[in-house]
TrEMBL record:
The keyword S-adenosyl-L-methionine applies. CDD domains: AdoMet_MTases. Keywords: Methyltransferase, S-adenosyl-L-methionine, Transferase. InterPro entries: MeTrfase_TrmA_AS (IPR030390), MeTrfase_TrmA_CS (IPR030391), NA-bd_OB-fold (IPR012340), SAM-dependent_MTases_sf (IPR029063), TRAM_dom (IPR002792), tRNA_(uracil-5-)_MeTrfase (IPR025795), U5_MeTrfase_fam (IPR010280). Gene3D superfamilies: Nucleic acid-binding proteins, Vaccinia Virus protein VP39. Belongs to the class I-like SAM-binding methyltransferase superfamily. RNA M5U methyltransferase family. GO terms for molecular function: tRNA (uracil(54)-C5)-methyltransferase activity, S-adenosyl methionine-dependent. This is Class I SAM-dependent RNA methyltransferase. S-adenosyl-L-methionine binds at Q244, Y273, E294, D341. The lineage of its organism: Bacteria, Pseudomonadati, Verrucomicrobiota, Verrucomicrobiia, Verrucomicrobiales.
C-alpha cells in the first residue's frame, strides 16, 4: 500500500540507519564485486550500493546494517556519471549475472585495473605497477558457455529458466536471451527452453542446462566433444568440462602467457592445473620440454590426445594433484618456468612448499579470482619471488569478473 511502513525483518540491526531509510550518497569507488562505494556523514560510514557508479550522486534505500558498513539499493540516480550508458539487456539490474552494462566499456577496464592495484596494496601489502587491462575484442556476444538453471517444478509447472536474481541466493530470473552469450547460443536457447518447458512435469528436481558453443555448433550434452582452435592448435574437450569461455580474446591471452613464460630464456616448462592442455600446448613451441599436470583424468586424457592430434611431441601430461609434478620431472629448477592456473579457490600450501623446494626461476600465475591469487602471491613473495609484471585481461566484459596474469621471478 502506498505510504504504508515497510515490515522490518526480524534480525534487522537499526544502527546507524532505519530500515528502508533513504539517503543521498556520493559514490567514490567500485569494489571488486562491482558494487558502488559511498561514505556517509561525519564518521564516513561506508555504504555499498550496487549499480551506482563512481562520481555519481544517488538516492539509496538502506536494507542492512553491518558492524562497519551498510548495504543499500539504488533508488534513483540524482547526478549521473558521464560514463553511464544504456544497458543492452532489459534484465540488467534484476539478473545477478552482469554488474557493469550501465558503465562505458573503457571505464570498466580502468576500474578493473584499479581494483587489482587496490588488492595488491590491501592483501599483499605492495605498490606494484599494474598494466592497463587488455580488452576483449567483443564487448557483448562473447561467451561460449551458458548454464541456465531451473528449480523443481511446482504443480507440474516449471517457472523461471535462467540465472540467480541480483542479491538473492535461490530466486531465479527468467532469461530468454543473454546478450553477453554468443549469438548461436541464444538461437539454440529458444529450442532448449521450449523443450524443457514441454517436459516440465517430468522433472523431479531442479537442474542446470548446458549450452557450449565451439567452432562448429552448440552442444547441450556435457559428454559431447567440443572443438576449438587457438593459435593454430586444435583442442578437443568434453563440452561440460572446463575450457576458457571467451574464444575471441584467447589467442592474445595464450600468446601473452607464452611470452611471459619464455621471456627468461628457460628451456623447460611446467603447466600446473593444465586442463586439456591450453597453455602447455600453445607454449610448447617456445620450450625444449613441457610437462603438464591436472587432477581430472578425463581432462588429462584430452590433453594427451590434443598433443598427439596436433603433432606436438615435446609435451608430457600427467594425471595427479598439481604438487606431484615436482617429484615427477627431472628439469633443473633454474631453467624452468612454472605456469599455474588453479581453480577459483587458488593453490595450496603443499603446492607452494614443493614449488619452493624445486625453485623454478620463473612463475606465471594465471587466475580468475584475484582474491585467492593475492593470498597466494603473498606466499610467493615470502619464499623469495618478486613480481615482474601484473597484466589483467578482460575475459568477462559487463561483469565484475577478471582474469589476472602475474609473472614472478626468483629474486
Ligand atoms: C582454471 S582451470 C584451468 C585449466 C587450463 N589451464 C585452461 O586454461 O584450460 C583449473 C584446472 O585445475 C584443475 N584442478 C583442480 N584442482 C587441482 C589439483 N589439486 N591439482 C591439479 N589440477 C587441479 C581443474 O580440474 C581444472 O581443470
Amino acid at each position: 500500500m502506498p505510504g504504508s511502513r515497510p515490515r522490518v525483518p526480524a534480525k534487522f540491526n537499526p544502527h546507524p540507519f532505519a530500515y528502508h531509510e533513504e539517503v543521498e550518497l556520493q559514490i567514490h569507488s567500485l569494489t571488486n564485486l562491482g558494487v558502488g562505494v559511498a561514505r556517509h556523514g561525519e564518521d564516513q560510514w561506508v555504504v555499498f550500493v550496487p549499480f551506482a557508479l563512481p562520481g555519481e550522486t544517488v538516492l539509496a534505500r538502506i536494507f542492512r546494517n553491518h558492524k562497519s558498513y551498510s548495504e543499500a539499493d539504488l533508488v534513483r540516480v540524482i547526478d549521473p556519471s558521464p560514463n553511464r550508458v544504456e544497458p543492452v539487456c532489459p534484465l540488467f539490474g534484476t539478473c545477478g549475472g552482469c554488474q557493469y552494462q550501465n558503465f562505458k566499456y573503457s571505464e570498466q577496464l580502468v576500474w578493473k585495473r584499479r581494483q587489482v592495484e587496490e588488492l595488491l596494496q590491501r592483501m599483499v601489502g605492495i605498490e606494484a605497477e599494474v598494466q592497463p587491462v587488455i580488452a576483449s575484442p567483443k564487448e557483448y556476444h562473447y561467451r561460449s558457455k551458458l548454464t541456465p538453471h531451473f528449480q523443481k517444478p511446482r504443480c507440474g509447472e516449471l517457472s523461471e529458466i535462467g540465472f540467480l536474481k541480483q542479491g538473492r541466493r535461490y530466486d531465479l530470473v527468467d532469461v530468454e536471451s543473454c546478450p553477453i552469450a554468443m549469438d548461436q547460443i541464444n538461437e539454440r536457447l529458444i529450442g532448449v527452453r521450449a523443450d524443457v518447458r514441454s517436459r516440465g512435469s517430468s522433472f523431479k528436481r531442479g537442474a542446470t542446462l548446458l549450452l557450449r558453443a565451439d567452432k562448429n555448433t552448440v552442444h547441450t550434452e556435457s559428454d559431447a566433444i567440443a572443438e576449438e582452435d587457438v593459435e593454430g592448435v586444435t583442442f578437443r574437450f568434453k563440452a561440460g568440462e572446463f575450457f576458457q569461455n571467451n574464444p575471441y580474446i584467447l589467442p592474445k591471452f595464450t600468446s601473452f602467457v607464452r611470452e611471459q613464460a619464455a621471456a627468461g630464456g628457460n628451456k623447460y616448462l611446467i603447466d600446473a592445473y593444465c586442463g586439456s592442455g591450453l597453455f602447455g600446448l600453445t607454449s610448447a613451441r617456445a620450450f625444449d620440454q613441457v610437462a603438464g599436470i591436472e587432477v581430472s583424468e578425463a581432462a588429462i586424457d584430452w590433453a594427451k590426445a590434443n598433443a598427439k592430434a596436433n603433432g606436438i611431441e615435446n609435451v608430457r601430461f600427467i594425471n595427479g594433484s598439481a604438487e606431484a609434478i615436482f617429484q615427477d620431472v627431472q628439469f633443473p629448477g633454474s631453467e624452468t618456468t612454472v605456469i599455474i592456473d588453479p581453480p577459483r579457490k587458488g593453490s595450496n600450501q603443499m603446492f607452494i612448499d614443493q614449488l619452493q623446494a624445486f625453485g623454478p626461476s620463473r612463475v606465471v600465475y594465471v587466475s580468475c579470482n584475484p582474491a585467492t591469487q593475492m593470498r597466494d602471491l603473498k606466499e610467493f613473495l615470502e619464499i623469495g619471488y618478486e613480481i615482474e609484471n601484473v597484466q589483467p585481461f578482460d575475459l568477462f566484459p559487463q561483469t565484475r569478473h577478471l582474469e589476472c596474469i602475474v609473472t614472478l621471478r626468483k629474486a
